[in-house]
């Protein structure tokens, strides 16, 4: 838990979020600035800065984040498809340095992304 980390503070209940899925090790909540009709952020409860650091430190937890992302997509009714994105580092636009998977669905998603 880092007091400086927005997503650690959401895990701690200090900042409200609209939760859609929860496990003992992961949490999923709606993005405050959705980029698709369904835009959910999936995080491990434990703090890791990015996906590379997460998988190096705890590959089992990385797998649990992916399983939660798939469960969220199913619960959101993403039968036509969905996208899971880990923005990593400044050139990818990562703004919150607590690893998170964006799970996007509900519209046609172009490829490659901008
Ligand atoms: P990044 O840009 O790091 O890949 O994604 C961070 C995401 O967190 C952004 O999509 C942003 O909209 C979302 N976000 C930032 N602050 C909050 C917040 O306080 N609550 C929620 N639910 N999402 C947030
Ligand atoms: Zn954190």
TrEMBL record:
SUPFAM superfamilies: HIT-like (SSF54197). PROSITE patterns: HIT_2 (PS51084). A motif (Histidine triad motif) lies at residues 98-102. Residues 6-114 form the HIT domain. InterPro entries: Histidine_triad_HIT, HIT-like, HIT-like_sf. This is Histidine triad nucleotide-binding protein. The lineage of its organism: Bacteria, Bacillati, Actinomycetota, Actinomycetes, Micromonosporales.
